[in-house]
Amino acid sequence: MLVEFKPYGKGAPVYVNTARILTAEPYHSGETDCGSIIYLDNGTTVLVGDYPRAVALKSDKVISRFVNGALLITRERNRQLIEEGHSTEQDDQYKNGALAMAGIVYATVASVSPELREEYRQVFKQGQRVHHWPWDGSNPKLEPKDDLESRIKELTKAGALIAAEIDKLQRKLRAQE
Asked: Global pTM?
């Protein structure tokens, strides 16, 4: 997604493909100029007038140093609804806490050792059923790496699924009133 950032100093806005952002960090030159240096996946660096938190908010990239967990979960839930086509109507059809159970699987995988994470990947690759995974014929979309960013992404998916379950229960509660 191409996003407009403020220029660093004077000049025209800067446009960056957010899918290419690896990370961003504060950049200062002198006493008055502040912004961010954005590192792209092709080795390019881009100076922008936005602070790193603003870069993270404008991009789809997890820059976890500048975005708190609750915001990451909100963005992931919105992504599920918009990009994957999930809906509250679909969520309302799930029974027995299925959304929360799927969240438990993501949270569990994100929290175990790399060896156990690999075991989970192999089990899912072989089509075997994992305890708590609520849907037959589908598997969680686990991150391929065992680094911190992958664990954050999986915890973010877990939180978004649990948030969807909470929203579903709140809709039921309002319907009872």
From this structure: 0.65
Q: What is the DSSP letter of 80?
A: H
CA torsion sign, 11 to 1 to 56 to 24? Answer: negative
- Using alpha carbons, select from 162, 59, 150, 155 the residue that is nearest to residue 101: 162
Res. 62 pLDDT band, cuts 50 70 90: very low
Q: Tokens in use for 78? A: 């919105």
pLDDT of 23 > 90? The answer is no
Tokens of 97: 């806490």
- Taking the C-alpha atoms of residue 105 and residue 126, their distance in angstroms, rounded to an integer, is 17
101: nearest Cα among 135, 136, 137 = 135
Q: Phi and psi for 9 in degrees, rounded to 5? A: 80, -135
Instruction: Give the gyration radius of the chain's Cα atoms.
Output: 19
Beta-bridge partners for 147: none
Contact (CB, 8 A) for 141 and 84: no
Q: Residue 22: helix, strand or coil by DSSP? A: strand
The Cα–Cα gap between 127 and 5 comes to: 44
How far does the chain reach from its first CA to its final CA, in angstroms? 42
Q: Which helix or strand (DSSP H or E) is residue 102 part of? A: helix 98-111
Residue 2 is given by DSSP the state E
